[in-house]
């Protein structure tokens, strides 16, 4: 694995509003990364910067700043949420245009993905539902065969069958090609099966950058009565406390806990979404 | 990788139907009055109709320039085109577009004039290129038209680009600067001199002067094209 994307202390603002704060990260080729954050956390801005759509000199893709870079642009594909598609275009038109901008465009894959999403090549964008437009945009992203492919909320508007189709095509590409995928989502419970690493943004800062296995080990529950669990105070960082009559359930942050006794008492692990919600709470 | 074929495709998809519609409406307009003139003759009356086809095409081509900015930058950037490539592509497209439009207009103009000359219908299509005592060749008029159309489409593009990048305030400033040159006595005499010069110049002088104006109009966006964004009001740092 080699690093394809490097971000070094990236700050970004819209006018006076700072949206990205001291972001540093490295993304390796051949991996699928997830990007999670609450609304307004800076996910889309970060993806725009990496894709070269927004100016940022602190980002390097294959060693070069991607913004307006004619060498790098043909190898990056950023599929935005509600990706711009002219209503006058047909599916075939969109493919022709994408093929002119993406050096590794694969027409056979485009046609295969379009068929899997039940998109006819002659169909006009203006006649499409939101889900069909999303499917077309995803088809473009997959068929671009870009070395760095970025999807912003790719499954928004897709029904369950088409979401499955997308993930199948994604995994097929991932297995056959040395591509880097970065996928943002709010539905982490669905995406977590397909990604190897997850980046978590909170208010413009990167607060977590770990493998999925590390995330699974990041938090756990300890159950008991309030009296039984008095000893926990001060020994572990409690992410969440839920009381059910005399019983209490603590969600413990295992990343910061080194107390053997606490670790022994952890009974089961936490759903990723619950954990992410707690670590991004403003408490 | 050049963005030219992709930008040409985007431009063609955006403009082709309006381009065909324009020429159809233009033809229907002229033929409509011709038919009216023929009918009037059978009723022992007359219909006199005079139009200026150059001006109609210039207005259309100016509007086309203003309508080009959004699709080519919005879609072009989203699909991974660079600003430099998109801009270079636009210049090539405008040059070809002006050439084709001038060719079609020349054929229309001479075709209609020949048609009207063979009948007694009082329809006259005037050309600003033949006014002022000039008697240039068809090729001379054609080249001058190419240059003038290119200037108008570039002007439309520039104004639209200023609005796209700077917002309405950019347009207001541009309009204020233009009005200043008309209203302030120090400057407005230059417009009068320019008008007098145009009325006395031959088609070669006019063509080369127009080419100079095109270069000036196309150079202005180079000062801010690098910062054009699909998303406004943001900065890095």
From TrEMBL, chain A:
Coiled coil: none annotated. PROSITE patterns: ABC_TRANSPORTER_2. One of its GO terms (molecular function) is ATP binding. InterPro entries: AAA+_ATPase, ABC_transporter-like_ATP-bd, P-loop_NTPase. Keywords: ATP-binding, Nucleotide-binding. Pfam families: ABC_tran (PF00005). PANTHER family: ABC TRANSPORTER, ATP-BINDING PROTEIN, SKFA PEPTIDE EXPORT ATP-BINDING PROTEIN SKFE. This is Multidrug ABC transporter ATP-binding protein.
From TrEMBL, chain B:
It comes from the Bacteria. Keywords: Membrane, Transmembrane, Transmembrane helix. The chain crosses the membrane at residues 20-40, 55-77, 89-109, 139-162, 169-192, 204-225. This is Uncharacterized protein.
């Amino acid at each position: 694995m080699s690093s394809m994307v490097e971000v070094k202390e990236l700050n970004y603002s819209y006018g006076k509003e700072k949206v990205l704060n001291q972001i540093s990260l490295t993304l390796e080729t051949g991996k699928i990364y997830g990007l999670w954050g609450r609304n307004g956390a800076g996910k889309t801005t970060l993806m725009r910067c990496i894709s070269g759509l927004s100016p940022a000199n602190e980002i390097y893709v294959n060693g070069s700043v991607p913004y307006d870079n004619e060498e790098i642009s043909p190898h990056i594909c950023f599929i935005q949420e509600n990706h711009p598609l002219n209503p006058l275009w047909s599916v075939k038109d969109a493919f022709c245009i994408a093929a002119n901008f993406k050096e590794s465009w694969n027409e056979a894959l485009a046609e295969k993905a379009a068929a899997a999403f039940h998109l006819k090549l002659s169909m006009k964008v203006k006649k499409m539902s939101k889900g069909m437009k999303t499917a077309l945009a995803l088809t473009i992203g997959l068929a671009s065969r870009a070395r760095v492919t970025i999807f912003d909320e790719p499954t928004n508007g897709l029904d369950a069958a088409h979401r499955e189709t997308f993930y199948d095509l994604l995994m097929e590409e991932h297995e056959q090609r040395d591509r880097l995928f970065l996928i943002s989502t709010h539905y982490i419970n669905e995406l977590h099966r397909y990604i190897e690493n997850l980046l978590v943004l909170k208010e413009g800062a990167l607060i977590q950058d770990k493998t999925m296995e590390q995330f699974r080990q990041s938090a756990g529950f300890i159950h008991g009565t309030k009296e039984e669990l008095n000893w926990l105070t001060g020994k572990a960082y409690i992410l969440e406390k839920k009381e059910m009559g005399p019983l209490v359930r603590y969600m413990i942050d295992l990343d910061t806990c080194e107390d053997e006794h606490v670790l022994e008492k952890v009974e089961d692990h936490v759903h990723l979404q619950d954990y992410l919600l707690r670590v991004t709470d403003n408490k | 990788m050049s963005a030219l074929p992709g930008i040409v495709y985007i431009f063609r998809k955006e403009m082709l139907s309006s381009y065909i519609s324009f020429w159809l409406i233009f033809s229907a307009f002229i033929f409509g009055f011709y038919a009216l003139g023929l009918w009037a003759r059978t009723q022992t009356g007359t219909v006199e109709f005079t139009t200026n086809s150059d001006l109609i095409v210039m207005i259309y081509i100016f509007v086309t320039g203003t309508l080009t900015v959004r699709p080519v930058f919005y879609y072009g950037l989203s699909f991974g085109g660079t600003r430099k490539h998109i801009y270079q592509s636009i210049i090539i497209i405008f040059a070809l577009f002006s050439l084709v439009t001038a060719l079609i207009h020349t054929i229309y103009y001479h075709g209609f004039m020949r048609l009207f000359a063979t009948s007694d219908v009082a329809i006259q299509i005037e050309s600003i290129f033949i006014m002022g005592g000039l008697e240039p060749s068809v090729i001379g008029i054609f080249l001058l038209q190419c240059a003038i159309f290119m200037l108008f489409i570039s002007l439309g593009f520039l104004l639209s680009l200023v609005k796209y990048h700077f917002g309405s305030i950019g347009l207001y400033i541009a309009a204020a600067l233009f009005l200043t040159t008309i209203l302030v006595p120090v400057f407005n005499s230059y417009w009068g001199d320019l008008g007098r010069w145009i009325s006395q110049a031959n088609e070669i002088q006019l063509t080369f002067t127009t080419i100079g104006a095109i270069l000036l109009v196309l150079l202005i966006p180079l000062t801010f094209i690098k910062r054009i964004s699909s998303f406004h009001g943001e900065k890095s740092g």
